[in-house]
């Protein structure tokens, strides 16, 4: 179990760093509170969220952090990472979605992102162990960027749906 924690150390440190940045951002935004300012209107959307919505938001931030850390730090996708990613996908699908078709879409979408992460992992292994090729490196970089942006797009889209549902 300890070896799994050490294998995931890059992700854990990156997640802690992202958490500190988000915390600092929120502290800076809430300093000198004046409810008439636009920044407080944005933060006000986060107040009064249900526990399920907070769970969804937390897992989505952690899932995006995992995706970016796999792409940036070239982490090896072993059983621990696949299990962690699958756990985030399942928690996110069950915490946010209420309709069976949307849950199925989230699971299929998560499987596609997991497959893309595995593909980037295979490419990185090929570059290191078999042959270093500029075209494969370019494909690796573009696929890593695509997976990160693709995941971020769905998080922002679902976050918009969450706020629409909250204020209806």
Give a description of the structure:
The chain has seven helices and no strands. By secondary structure, the chain is an all-alpha fold. The model has no long low-confidence stretch (mean pLDDT 77). Helices cover 83% and strands 0% of the residues. The termini are far apart.
Mean pLDDT: 77
Number of helices: 7
- Which regions have little confidence, pLDDT < 50, spanning 5+ residues? none
Structural class: mainly alpha
Radius of gyration: 18 Å
- General form: globular
Beta strand %: under 5%
- Give a short account of the largest sheet: none
How many DSSP-defined strands?
Answer: 0
Which percent range fits the helix content?
Answer: over 70%
Terminus-to-terminus distance: 45 Å
Give the H and E element order: HHHHHHH
Give a quick set of tags describing it:
168 residues; mainly alpha; globular
What is shown here, in short?
By secondary structure, this protein is an all-alpha fold. Helices cover 83% and strands 0% of the residues. Helix 4 (51-73) runs antiparallel to helix 7 (134-166).
Layout of secondary structure:
Layout: H1 2-7, H2 9-30, H3 38-44, H4 51-73, H5 79-96, H6 100-129, H7 134-166
